[in-house]
Amino acid sequence: MMAFIKNYNLENIRNKLVILYFLNVTDIIFTLLLLNTGFYMEANPFMIKAVQNLSISFILKIVLPAILLLYLSLRIKKATDYQLKISNIIINIATTAYALINVSHLIWFSLLDILLVL
Fold first, then answer.
1. Does 74 fall in a domain?
2. Residue 90 domain-assigned?
3. 24-44 burial code (b ≥16 CB/10 A, e <16)
4. Model-level pTM?
5. Could you list the residue range(s) of the whole structural domain that residue 74 is in?
């Protein structure tokens, strides 16, 4: 696992971008599901208005990131070793952040499940 995190070759970075995209998509799905319960509020001030409209949420969290990650995966072919190393660090930080957000969502689902059982 540590080798995967530290390794910044082209294939590894592309795999990390796929993982990052997946976490981003699950973030918006979990957020929208939790918002529908009425017991949850969007914590990201930039997304508060966006989550009120499903189309805008879809565009901002699924379509635009897909385009950006596609561009990055094409652009990264021309990256220097230093750029790959820096990209790897940034991707690891973003992936960690999204993983923590998704864990938070799962905790909320568990808490809501317990609340609804009581």
1. yes
2. yes
3. bbbbbebbbebeeeeebebee
4. 0.89
5. 7-117
Domain count, the chain: 1
Residue 2 lies in a domain: no
List pLDDT tens digits, range 6-16. 888 889 999 99
Write out pLDDT tens, residues 42-74: 999 999 999 999 999 999 999 999 999 899 988
Query: Smallest Cα–Cα separation from 17: which of 84, 80, 78, 82?
Result: 84
Does some domain include residue 15? yes
